[in-house]
Amino acid sequence: MLVKEMMDKDFIVVSPDEDLVEVSILMENKRKFTTPVVDDQKRLIGWITSLDVTRGFREGLKKVKDVMYVKEDVVLVNQNDPARLAVLEASQHRVVAIPVVNDDDVVVGVVRTFDIVKTLSSLYEIKVYKIFEAMDNELKGVTWDELMEASAIVTRRRTGKRVTAQDYEKRIRESTFGEAIWATGGLEKFFVGLIAIGELVIARKVAQARK
Protein backbone atom coordinates (compact mmCIF):
# COMPACT_ATOMS: atom_id res chain seq x y z
CA MET A 1 0.00 0.00 0.00
CA LEU A 2 1.21 3.49 -0.87
CA VAL A 3 0.70 6.75 1.02
CA LYS A 4 -1.69 8.02 -1.66
CA GLU A 5 -4.01 5.09 -0.95
CA MET A 6 -4.28 6.02 2.72
CA MET A 7 -4.08 9.83 2.71
CA ASP A 8 -6.97 12.23 3.25
CA LYS A 9 -7.68 14.18 0.05
CA ASP A 10 -10.23 16.42 1.76
CA PHE A 11 -7.80 18.94 3.21
CA ILE A 12 -7.42 22.71 3.40
CA VAL A 13 -4.40 24.90 2.65
CA VAL A 14 -3.50 28.42 3.67
CA SER A 15 -1.00 31.01 2.47
CA PRO A 16 1.72 32.56 4.64
CA ASP A 17 0.21 36.05 4.42
CA GLU A 18 -3.30 35.07 5.52
CA ASP A 19 -4.74 36.59 8.65
CA LEU A 20 -4.69 34.30 11.70
CA VAL A 21 -8.26 35.15 12.64
CA GLU A 22 -9.54 34.11 9.20
CA VAL A 23 -7.43 30.96 9.27
CA SER A 24 -8.74 30.03 12.72
CA ILE A 25 -12.32 30.38 11.45
CA LEU A 26 -11.52 28.25 8.39
CA MET A 27 -9.90 25.53 10.50
CA GLU A 28 -12.83 25.54 12.92
CA ASN A 29 -15.47 25.39 10.17
CA LYS A 30 -13.64 22.58 8.36
CA ARG A 31 -12.78 20.82 11.63
CA LYS A 32 -9.08 20.65 10.75
CA PHE A 33 -6.52 20.94 13.52
CA THR A 34 -3.55 21.12 11.15
CA THR A 35 -3.03 22.55 7.69
CA PRO A 36 -0.27 22.92 5.09
CA VAL A 37 0.99 26.38 4.21
CA VAL A 38 1.54 26.69 0.46
CA ASP A 39 2.64 29.14 -2.22
CA ASP A 40 0.64 30.15 -5.31
CA GLN A 41 1.38 26.79 -6.99
CA LYS A 42 0.28 24.88 -3.86
CA ARG A 43 3.86 23.85 -3.16
CA LEU A 44 4.55 23.19 0.49
CA ILE A 45 6.39 25.96 2.31
CA GLY A 46 5.20 25.43 5.88
CA TRP A 47 2.77 23.91 8.35
CA ILE A 48 0.56 25.18 11.17
CA THR A 49 -1.55 23.60 13.89
CA SER A 50 -4.42 24.95 15.93
CA LEU A 51 -1.99 25.27 18.84
CA ASP A 52 0.21 27.56 16.74
CA VAL A 53 -2.80 29.73 15.99
CA THR A 54 -3.67 29.90 19.69
CA ARG A 55 -0.08 30.85 20.52
CA GLY A 56 -0.21 33.53 17.83
CA PHE A 57 -3.30 35.10 19.39
CA ARG A 58 -1.68 35.04 22.83
CA GLU A 59 1.48 36.71 21.54
CA GLY A 60 -0.36 39.28 19.43
CA LEU A 61 0.85 37.87 16.10
CA LYS A 62 -1.21 38.51 12.98
CA LYS A 63 -0.11 36.35 10.03
CA VAL A 64 0.31 32.68 9.30
CA LYS A 65 4.00 33.23 8.49
CA ASP A 66 4.51 34.49 12.04
CA VAL A 67 3.57 31.17 13.62
CA MET A 68 4.14 28.49 10.97
CA TYR A 69 6.83 25.83 10.91
CA VAL A 70 9.02 26.27 7.85
CA LYS A 71 9.24 23.39 5.40
CA GLU A 72 12.67 22.31 6.65
CA ASP A 73 11.16 21.59 10.06
CA VAL A 74 8.09 19.77 8.74
CA VAL A 75 7.75 15.98 8.68
CA LEU A 76 6.41 15.07 5.24
CA VAL A 77 6.04 12.10 2.89
CA ASN A 78 5.71 11.61 -0.85
CA GLN A 79 2.46 10.23 -2.25
CA ASN A 80 4.35 7.26 -3.72
CA ASP A 81 6.14 6.34 -0.49
CA PRO A 82 5.10 3.09 1.22
CA ALA A 83 2.22 3.72 3.62
CA ARG A 84 4.24 2.18 6.44
CA LEU A 85 6.67 5.10 6.15
CA ALA A 86 3.90 7.53 7.13
CA VAL A 87 3.04 5.32 10.10
CA LEU A 88 6.67 5.20 11.22
CA GLU A 89 7.15 8.95 10.78
CA ALA A 90 4.00 9.76 12.75
CA SER A 91 5.09 7.44 15.55
CA GLN A 92 8.71 8.58 15.65
CA HIS A 93 7.97 12.30 15.58
CA ARG A 94 4.72 12.07 17.57
CA VAL A 95 2.68 14.16 15.17
CA VAL A 96 -1.04 13.90 14.50
CA ALA A 97 -0.83 14.69 10.79
CA ILE A 98 1.71 14.70 7.96
CA PRO A 99 1.50 16.60 4.65
CA VAL A 100 1.78 14.54 1.48
CA VAL A 101 3.49 15.98 -1.58
CA ASN A 102 4.11 14.87 -5.14
CA ASP A 103 7.47 15.00 -6.91
CA ASP A 104 7.04 18.75 -7.50
CA ASP A 105 6.46 19.46 -3.78
CA VAL A 106 2.79 20.21 -4.48
CA VAL A 107 0.57 19.22 -1.56
CA VAL A 108 -1.80 16.45 -2.67
CA GLY A 109 -3.05 15.16 0.66
CA VAL A 110 -2.60 14.82 4.39
CA VAL A 111 -2.11 11.64 6.40
CA ARG A 112 -3.75 11.93 9.77
CA THR A 113 -3.56 9.53 12.69
CA PHE A 114 -7.24 8.88 12.07
CA ASP A 115 -6.42 7.65 8.55
CA ILE A 116 -3.70 5.38 9.95
CA VAL A 117 -6.01 3.90 12.57
CA LYS A 118 -8.78 3.44 9.99
CA THR A 119 -6.42 1.67 7.57
CA LEU A 120 -4.97 -0.62 10.25
CA SER A 121 -8.46 -1.38 11.51
CA SER A 122 -9.56 -2.45 8.03
CA LEU A 123 -6.53 -4.76 7.80
CA TYR A 124 -7.37 -6.26 11.18
CA GLU A 125 -10.85 -7.11 9.92
CA ILE A 126 -9.57 -9.36 7.12
CA LYS A 127 -10.71 -12.94 7.68
CA VAL A 128 -7.85 -15.28 8.59
CA TYR A 129 -8.86 -17.79 5.94
CA LYS A 130 -7.92 -15.20 3.29
CA ILE A 131 -4.33 -15.38 4.55
CA PHE A 132 -4.44 -19.17 4.36
CA GLU A 133 -5.83 -19.02 0.83
CA ALA A 134 -2.80 -16.93 -0.12
CA MET A 135 -0.54 -19.53 1.53
CA ASP A 136 -2.32 -22.30 -0.33
CA ASN A 137 -1.70 -20.54 -3.63
CA GLU A 138 2.02 -20.16 -2.87
CA LEU A 139 2.57 -23.73 -1.63
CA LYS A 140 2.51 -25.46 -4.99
CA GLY A 141 1.29 -29.05 -4.94
CA VAL A 142 -0.28 -28.73 -1.49
CA THR A 143 -4.03 -29.17 -1.15
CA TRP A 144 -6.26 -27.12 1.11
CA ASP A 145 -7.02 -30.23 3.21
CA GLU A 146 -3.30 -30.87 3.71
CA LEU A 147 -2.81 -27.27 4.79
CA MET A 148 -5.67 -27.50 7.29
CA GLU A 149 -4.34 -30.79 8.69
CA ALA A 150 -0.87 -29.30 9.18
CA SER A 151 -2.45 -26.25 10.85
CA ALA A 152 -4.37 -28.47 13.26
CA ILE A 153 -1.20 -30.40 14.16
CA VAL A 154 0.77 -27.22 14.88
CA THR A 155 -2.11 -25.91 17.00
CA ARG A 156 -2.25 -29.15 19.01
CA ARG A 157 1.50 -28.99 19.62
CA ARG A 158 1.34 -25.40 20.81
CA THR A 159 -1.81 -25.51 22.91
CA GLY A 160 -2.05 -29.14 23.98
CA LYS A 161 -5.70 -29.12 22.93
CA ARG A 162 -7.13 -31.58 20.46
CA VAL A 163 -8.05 -29.71 17.30
CA THR A 164 -9.16 -31.37 14.08
CA ALA A 165 -8.58 -30.00 10.60
CA GLN A 166 -12.31 -29.31 10.38
CA ASP A 167 -12.25 -27.42 13.69
CA TYR A 168 -9.32 -25.33 12.51
CA GLU A 169 -10.95 -24.46 9.18
CA LYS A 170 -14.12 -23.36 10.96
CA ARG A 171 -12.06 -21.22 13.33
CA ILE A 172 -10.20 -19.33 10.60
CA ARG A 173 -13.36 -18.72 8.61
CA GLU A 174 -14.96 -17.07 11.63
CA SER A 175 -11.91 -15.19 12.98
CA THR A 176 -10.41 -11.92 11.80
CA PHE A 177 -6.72 -11.16 11.47
CA GLY A 178 -6.92 -8.86 14.49
CA GLU A 179 -8.59 -11.52 16.64
CA ALA A 180 -5.96 -14.07 15.61
CA ILE A 181 -3.13 -11.73 16.59
CA TRP A 182 -4.60 -11.22 20.04
CA ALA A 183 -5.30 -14.92 20.46
CA THR A 184 -1.76 -15.99 19.54
CA GLY A 185 -0.08 -13.35 21.70
CA GLY A 186 1.03 -10.85 19.10
CA LEU A 187 1.90 -10.30 15.45
CA GLU A 188 5.30 -12.01 15.70
CA LYS A 189 3.89 -15.17 17.24
CA PHE A 190 1.10 -15.27 14.67
CA PHE A 191 3.54 -15.25 11.77
CA VAL A 192 5.89 -17.69 13.49
CA GLY A 193 2.90 -20.00 13.63
CA LEU A 194 2.26 -19.55 9.91
CA ILE A 195 5.88 -20.38 9.16
CA ALA A 196 5.65 -23.51 11.30
CA ILE A 197 2.54 -24.59 9.42
CA GLY A 198 4.21 -24.01 6.06
CA GLU A 199 7.30 -25.98 7.09
CA LEU A 200 5.22 -28.88 8.42
CA VAL A 201 2.97 -29.20 5.38
CA ILE A 202 6.01 -29.22 3.08
CA ALA A 203 7.83 -31.77 5.26
CA ARG A 204 4.78 -34.06 5.26
CA LYS A 205 4.51 -33.70 1.47
CA VAL A 206 8.18 -34.63 1.01
CA ALA A 207 7.82 -37.61 3.34
CA GLN A 208 4.83 -38.88 1.37
CA ALA A 209 6.75 -38.54 -1.90
CA ARG A 210 9.58 -40.69 -0.54
CA LYS A 211 7.31 -43.58 0.37
Please describe what this structure looks like.
- The chain has ten helices and six strands.
- The chain has 211 residues and is of the alpha+beta class.
- A three-stranded antiparallel sheet has the order 1-2-3. A three-stranded mixed sheet has the order 4-5-6.
- A hairpin with a 5-residue loop joins strand 1 (34-38) and strand 2 (44-49).
- Helix 2 runs antiparallel to helix 3, helix 6 crosses helix 8 and helix 7 crosses helix 10 (187-210).
- The chain starts with a helix and ends with a helix.
- The model has no long low-confidence stretch (mean pLDDT 89).
Please describe the topology of this protein.
Layout lengths: L2 H4 L13 H11 L3 E5 L5 E6 H10 L9 E2 L6 E2 L4 H11 L3 E5 L5 E6 H12 L3 H11 L5 H16 L5 H10 L2 H8 L2 H24 L1
Parallel strand pairs: 4-5
Antiparallel strand pairs: 1-2, 2-3, 5-6
Helix pairs in contact: 2-3, 6-8, 7-8, 7-10, 9-10
